[in-house]
Amino acid sequence: MPDKRTAKVISITNTKAECRDCTLRELCLPLGLSETELNAFDRLKKRQRMLRKGELLYRYGDPLKSLYAIRSGAVKTTGLMEDGRIQVTGFCLPGEMLGIDAINDDRHPCSAEALEITEVCDIPYLALEALAQEVPGLQHQLLRIMSQEIVRDEQMLMMLGRMSAEERLASCLISFSRRHARLGRNGAEFKLSMSRQDLGDYLGLALETVSRLFTRFQDEGLISVRGRHILLRSLDRLQALASGGAGGRSVHA
Amino acid sequence: MPDKRTAKVISITNTKAECRDCTLRELCLPLGLSETELNAFDRLKKRQRMLRKGELLYRYGDPLKSLYAIRSGAVKTTGLMEDGRIQVTGFCLPGEMLGIDAINDDRHPCSAEALEITEVCDIPYLALEALAQEVPGLQHQLLRIMSQEIVRDEQMLMMLGRMSAEERLASCLISFSRRHARLGRNGAEFKLSMSRQDLGDYLGLALETVSRLFTRFQDEGLISVRGRHILLRSLDRLQALASGGAGGRSVHA
DNA sequence: CGTAGCTTTGAGTGTTATCAACTCTCGTGG
DNA sequence: CCACGAGAGTTGATAACACTCAAAGCTACG
Fold first, then answer.
1. What is the arrangement of strands in the sheet containing B66-72, beginning at the earlier edge strand?
2. Of A119, A221, B48, B223, which has the fewest CB atoms closer than 10 Å, so is most exposed?
3. In sequence order, which residues have a C-beta less than 8 Å from that of residue B225 and are 6 or more positions away?
4. Contact between A139 and B129 (Cβ < 8 Å)
5. Residues 6+ away with beta carbon under 8 Å from A50
């Protein structure tokens, strides 16, 4: 996958990164920091770099050096079972953080792979923890983000444990929609950066099932699909589906 | 469920609790704190109280006041779907912590219910966060515990997303075994404090499936079951089962 | 323009859910 | 001490949802 010919084009790697100038400031780790705190945080030497599609940010077992923030693009994190089965534990979009599950024992318990050209921001962890000791707002924000990750995982547990295939895909689409909207993009129309296989490995479904569901949702007028291009046509009915509502008909709660 | 007659017996509630005297010190939040740090931590006013079977420690939506550590007994945490379906997101045994998923937005995103007589330790959260700001070891330990929770949830995702019913129950039994052993108890023999229904709601299975699996495991000589009393007869073969090994035969890796 | 990988679609199967009846256990009160 | 009842657990029959295997259609990239 590494391609020699484009290598020098990517030498934009290892630029210094400052949050004060970043458009994602208010969606990312620095959210809620005061002016002073933000300045302190920007003294932390963060690195910005670029990953090509398929490149790994870190790999299962790697020692924890940094946490990562996505600036653009998309990343999937995958856990591996002994017998080779894969579970995608999450997709990361811009403004979201990555790697906090490594704090527990200083090693990454999963691998992270870029799904497209992706800019990430390295935040050296030891320095971050030290700084959080000084800056109350930062400690709080760090704890908050970790707690949020736990909540997300628990919602995912609910999804995998108790939802039908249909409900899972509907929830997933709604989640993507919300996260796109958060970035100021159109929440009703977006391009998936992951394959059907990845979606299946995330939702606990076979890729064929995911594919069939896309066609079904389209036939029912819920969405339009062309390959990875998605248009949500009825968010209401999707939402009803996602929460176990009666077979896709919209429900007036 | 609340029973007037036993009420005054339970008035051991609201005792002050000190970690220095607690046998679980090395398994719980204070793990790894220095003598000085532990003293500082003990200045935090923690409360000890008792829950009877069925009592709720907190309920979905409650504001975050404290984190909780289990001293004895067992607790289950449950998320609820709009249509009433339940997902048990975890079981908590002594030495384990509870409530950290509430930090994200200052409300508990799930309910916590005692499965038997249970002693818990209230750790007021605001004071804890403030203290963590002063005591580096404590901040670190707090971050570590949260990260650990994320790792656990991710393993659970793998389980629900990719494992068969058989593999799920085997993993679950092994997990209980390890956690009992950690407490210095016999890891091969223990009493489940939860119903088949609870186990099903945790593993994403119907209670009937759980029941059938117990009988099957027993027939195959993997375990002995009498109601909630479990004896693990072949940890090796269970382990093989849990990791997708060939139908229960022991595998020489 | 060809090829490799991704996606769709179909047919058949299997695991697990659901529904229903029966049994066991344990706590309660007679 | 025994009888009773309720909740928990077991077992069986049936059905559905999603998986697997297989093949054909697309897309995108070189």
1. B15-16, B47-51, B118-124, B66-72, B97-98
2. A221
3. B214, B215, B217, B218, B231
4. yes
5. A10, A12, A13, A117, A118, A119, A120
Distances (CA, A) of A33 to A20, A27, A220: 11, 12, 46
Grouping H, G, I as helix, E, B as strand and the rest as coil, residue A77 is: strand
Residue A80 class from Cβ within 10 Å (0-12 exposed, 13-18 middle, 19+ buried)?
middle
Q: Which residue has the tokens 């390295």?
A: A122
Distance from residue B86's CA to nucleotide C13's C1', rounded to whole Å: 30
Q: Which of residues 35-74 of A touch B (CB under 8 A)?
A: none
CA B129, distance to chain mean position in Å, is: 23
Task: Please determine whether the domains at B4-159 and B163-242 fall in the same fold group of CATH.
Answer: no
Task: Domain ranges for chain A, please list them.
Answer: 4-159, 163-242
CA–CA separation, A125 vs A105, rounded Å? 13
Instruction: Give the single-character DSSP code of A26.
Output: G
Give percent helix, percent strand, percent coil of chain B, each to the nearest 5: 45, 20, 35
- DSSP assignment string, A97-125: EE-GGGTTTTB-SSEEEESSSEEEEEEEH
Q: Which CATH code is given to the segment(s) B163-242? A: 1.10.10.10
* Residue A5: CB atoms within 10 Å: 6
Third-level CATH fold of B4-159: Jelly Rolls (2.60.120)
Alpha helices (H) along B18-124: 35-43
- In one-letter notation, the amino acid at residue B211 is S
d(C-alpha B95, C-alpha B118), whole Å: 12
Residue of A nearest to B148 (CA): A104
One digit per residue, the tens of pLDDT, for chain A of length 253 reads 444 333 334 445 567 778 998 999 999 999 999 999 999 999 999 999 999 999 999 999 999 999 999 999 999 999 999 888 999 999 999 999 999 999 999 999 999 999 999 999 999 999 999 999 999 999 999 999 999 999 999 999 999 999 999 999 999 999 999 999 999 999 999 999 999 999 999 999 999 999 999 999 999 999 999 999 999 999 999 999 998 765 433 333 3
Check if B103 contacts A (Cβ < 8 Å): yes
Nucleotides of D under 7 A from a protein CB: 8-13, 17-22, 27-28
Q: Is B103 close to A129, i.e. CB distance below 8 A?
A: no
